[in-house]
Design a protein that fits this description.
binds adenosine monophosphate; about 325 residues; binds magnesium ion; globular; 9-stranded mixed beta sheet; alpha+beta; 4-stranded antiparallel beta sheet
Amino acid sequence: MRRFVTILTVLLLLTGCAKQAESHTKDFFAMNTVMSVTVSGENSEEDSLRAMQIVQELDKQWSVTNENSAVYQLNATGTAELSDETAELLRRSLQLKEETGGAFDPTIYQIVKMWGFTTGEYRVPTDVELADALEMHRNSSITLDGNRATVSGCAVDLGAVAKGYTAAKIASELEHADTLNLNLGGNIQLEGTKPDGSPWRVGIKNPENTEEYLGILELESGAVVTSGGYERYFEQDGVRYCHIIDPKTGRPADKGLISVTIVSEDGFLADALSTALYVMGLEEASAFWRGRTDFEAVLVTDAGEIYATEGLQDSFSGCEFQVITR
Ligand code: AMP
Ligand code: MG
C-alpha cells in the first residue's frame, strides 16, 4: 500500500507585507502539518515566537496520538477534566455538529482511526466492521458537564477545527501587531492592512495539480480555510481514500466535491465548515450557505467545475466559475 501525504492546502501569495516595521517569520511543524507565521510590527520577533508557542501548547492538549493530551485521556479512559479552552472548543464543536446535521462530527474519531487517518496505519475496513462501527456511533453519547467530558461508544477528534481555532486565537492575542499572516497547514488567517492598502491575496490550490493555483481570493482580513481530498489520502487497489469521513456512511466523503474553501471572519467556523461542506456535497452545501450569513465558499467538483458563493463574486479571480446565489 502506498502512502501519500500532501500537507499544505493553500499557497499564500505574499505581497509586500512589511512597511518599514520589522517582520519576522517562524516556520515549524505542529498539529501534523507544516506551519508558517509572519508578524510585522514593533515586537514582531517576540510575537512570532508567541504565535508558535500558542500552536504548540494547544497541540499538546488536543493531539489524539499523544498520551499526555487531554483528548487522548478522554478517548482512552472515557472521561477527562478539560481546560476551559478545550471545553469551550468542544462545546462549540458539538453545536456545529447540530447545525451541520452531523456532517461535521467531532466525535467521529473511532471511524477515522479505523481507516488509519491520524495514525498512518492505513487500511480499508470491511463492510461488517464499518456497519458495527456505525451502529456503535449511532448509539454513542458525549456529555460535557462544566469542564468534565464523558464519552461512551465514541471518541473525540478536534482535527477538523484545531488549526482554524488556533489561528483565530493567535489573531486575537496578537491584535496589536501591524500585520499578521498565518498559514497553519493551509489554514490561512490574515490581519492588518498592508502598507500600500492593497488587499491580501490568497491562492487556492488546484486540487487536480497542487503545484498550481486554481484562482486567487482577495480579502481585507479573516480566515481562508480549504479542505481537500488531496491533502491526506491513501490508495489501495487503484482506489483513493481521503481523510474526510462522511459520518452517515463511515466512508471517505464521496458527494462529488474535491475541494472546499471557506472564507470567514471566524477561523474556527471556517475550519469546521470546510470539512462539513466537503461532506455535504454541492447541493446541500449551497442550501446550507443560503441559510447563513457568516461565511462564503469556493467549491470544486470532481467534474472540474468551480462554484463560488455570490459574496465572493468580485474578490475571486483567475478562473471561470459559476456563482451560487441566494
Ligand atoms: P480538515 O482537513 O479540516 O477537513 O479536517 C479533516 C480531519 O478531521 C481528518 O483528518 C480527521 O481527523 C477529522 N475528520 C474527518 N472527517 C470528519 C468529519 N466528518 N467531521 C469532523 N472531523 C472529521
Ligand atoms: Mg476543517
